[in-house]
TrEMBL record:
Gene behind this protein: kduI
HAMAP family named in the record: KduI (MF_00687)
Reaction catalysis annotation: 5-dehydro-4-deoxy-D-glucuronate = 3-deoxy-D-glycero-2,5-hexodiulosonate
One GO MF term: 4-deoxy-L-threo-5-hexosulose-uronate ketol-isomerase activity
Cofactor(s) listed: Zn(2+)
Family membership noted in the UniProt record: Belongs to the KduI family.
Keywords from the named record: Isomerase, Metal-binding, Zinc
The protein's name in its UniProt record: 4-deoxy-L-threo-5-hexosulose-uronate ketol-isomerase
Phylogenetic placement of the source organism: Bacteria, Pseudomonadati, Bacteroidota, Cytophagia, Cytophagales
């Protein structure tokens, strides 16, 4: 498990492209037959990916957690962006199709990831936050998620938002998680943009066609910075930063947050004329 330390707006304003990418972009999360974990010091969120092929992968217990097992003091959100698979939690198996979500509560000791087919493996995106109480392990398929239609063709941001883990959905201590799918012909996400000083956010861009890119914008509204992002790469967004982007094609992204609350609508809007 690698680490990313918290960076202030002042430090970010002086960074070049390489430094921005080293601190805020996770370039490779999905590695065949492996689990990749990145520990961030933004609300102590862990961002990860698991790609089992012909054998199960077991959620590890990195030494720097100083825990008896990974979820001793944590909770976990799992969202599958690949082929069909199964996640086994303390002996109970949950079937996850593409874009299905599983919440695993504090106290679960044995978590294993499997794929239905090694030729089309599951690709599990992982988000874990500290937890102070136990909530039941819960599966929610995309068909069961709460869809919200937003945006318009005229502003190139027509999109469907699917909510999984949030105040009115799967219960958690502080984790919030869902995904957004842009419609064909729409390219802008999270526009108009916002910040939310009370919690960090992580993005995973996926379903981006080969050769296409997303231009992700971060930074304070008055001091924005660009990052070019490829398919299945993740962005760490500090609480003080906007997080918006424009693609060369339509795409999808998973959003996940941890911090002071689980209210999806807790955000501080930034008008377009305030962006610099």
């Amino acid at each position: 498990m690698t680490q990313r330390f918290a960076i202030s707006p002042r430090e970010t304003a002086g960074m070049n492209t390489t430094e921005l990418r080293e601190n805020f972009l996770i370039e490779r999360l999905f590695v065949a037959d492996d689990i990749t974990l990145v520990y961030t010091h933004y609300d102590r969120m862990i961002v990860g990916g698991a790609v089992p092929t012909d054998k199960p992968l077991v959620l590890p217990n990195p030494a720097n957690l100083k825990a008896d097992y990974f979820l001793e003091r944590r909770e976990l959100g799992i969202l599958n962006v690949g082929g069909a698979g199964q996640v086994t939690v303390d002996g109970t198996t949950y079937e996850l199709g593409n874009q299905d979500c599983l919440y695993v509560g504090k106290g679960a000791q044995d978590v294993q990831f499997l794929s239905a087919s090694a030729d089309e493996p599951a690709r599990y995106y992982l988000l874990s936050a500290p937890a102070h109480a136990e909530h039941p392990t819960t599966l929610k398929t995309q068909a069961e998620a709460t869809p919200v239609e937003m945006g318009a063709v005229e502003t190139a941001n027509q999109r469907t938002i699917y909510k999984y883990i949030y105040a009115e959905g799967i219960q958690s201590c502080q984790l919030v998680m869902g995904l957004t799918q842009l419609k064909t012909g729409s390219v802008w996400n999270t526009m108009p943009s916002h910040t939310h000083d009370r919690r960090m956010e992580a993005y995973l861009y996926f379903n981006l066609p080969a050769g296409q890119r997303v231009l992700h914008l971060m930074g304070e509204p008055s001091e924005t910075r660009p990052l070019w992002v490829s398919n299945e790469q993740a962005i760490l967004s500090p609480p003080w930063s906007i997080h918006t982007g424009c693609g060369s094609s339509n795409y999808a992204f998973i959003w996940g947050m941890a911090g002071e609350n689980r209210e999806y609508t807790d955000m501080d809007a930034v008008a377009l004329d305030q962006l610099r």
